[in-house]
From TrEMBL:
One of the record's GO molecular function terms: sugar transmembrane transporter activity
Keywords of this entry: Cell membrane, Golgi apparatus, Membrane, Repeat, Sugar transport, Transmembrane, Transmembrane helix, Transport
Name of the protein described by the UniProt record: Sugar transporter SWEET1
Membrane topology, record value: Multi-pass membrane protein
Functional summary from the UniProt entry: Mediates sugar transport across membranes.
Length: 200
């Protein structure tokens, strides 16, 4: 087994593990029959992110990116369905989902119909996906100020922090091997974000 294949397996295992951390929220929703203290937008934005990277992986013909993002999107869809089932705020969840669907449709039209096939499409899609992923990784850092100020780290998920670190590291190494800066940039921020999370 060569180094690239080993990194590919590491990316798959760690990323699926990271996406699976949402199963604890799923369990909490089922047990409490509510969505109290569980945020909806991370499920929705992660699903959009997975679908974007799935498109990138298909254009690049990279089976690792495709497989990971199919699994990720399916898990996020499961979390979204369960959230919708248990939430008291169905109208809000539905409107956010419709807005996300609109963004996805516009993206599909732009990248699929207006951009020429080839390197230009791949490059612009990679850049867009990287910006979205970096934004997703950096947004929890805004909560870090409040966590540090209050000293309350209960809202931080230690398993998710560890999973993010290992997942991001494996993807950065994978991106280096492929000489793909979009993969490296998107995951470098994950390493930084996971290293700056305070511990108990």
């Amino acid at each position: 087994m060569d180094f690239l294949q080993l990194l590919s397996w590491a990316c798959i295992v760690f990323t699926v593990g990271m996406f699976s951390t949402g199963l604890t929220d799923l369990k909490t929703m089922r047990e409490s029959k509510s969505t109290d203290n569980i945020q909806f937008l991370p499920f929705l934005t992660t699903c959009l992110n997975n679908l974007g990277w799935l498109s990138y992986g298909m254009l690049k013909r990279d089976q690792t990116i495709v497989l990971v993002n199919i699994i990720g999107a399916l898990l996020q869809i499961l979390y979204i369905i369960m959230y919708f089932h248990y939430t008291k705020h169905k109208r809000l969840v539905m409107s956010q989902t419709v807005a996300a669907g609109t963004v996805l449709t516009c993206g599909w039209l732009y990248f699929g119909m207006f951009l020429p096939e080839g390197d230009s499409r791949l490059s612009q899609l990679g850049l867009t996906c990287s910006v979205v992923t970096v934004s997703m990784y950096m947004s929890p850092l805004t909560d870090l100020v409040e966590i540090v100020r209050s000293g309350n780290v209960q809202c931080l998920s230690f398993p998710l922090t560890v999973a993010t670190f290992f997942t991001s590291t494996s993807w950065v190494l994978y991106g280096l091997q492929l000489n793909d800066y979009y993969i490296m940039v998107r995951r470098s921020t994950g390493i930084c974000a996971s290293n700056h999370s305070p511990q108990d």
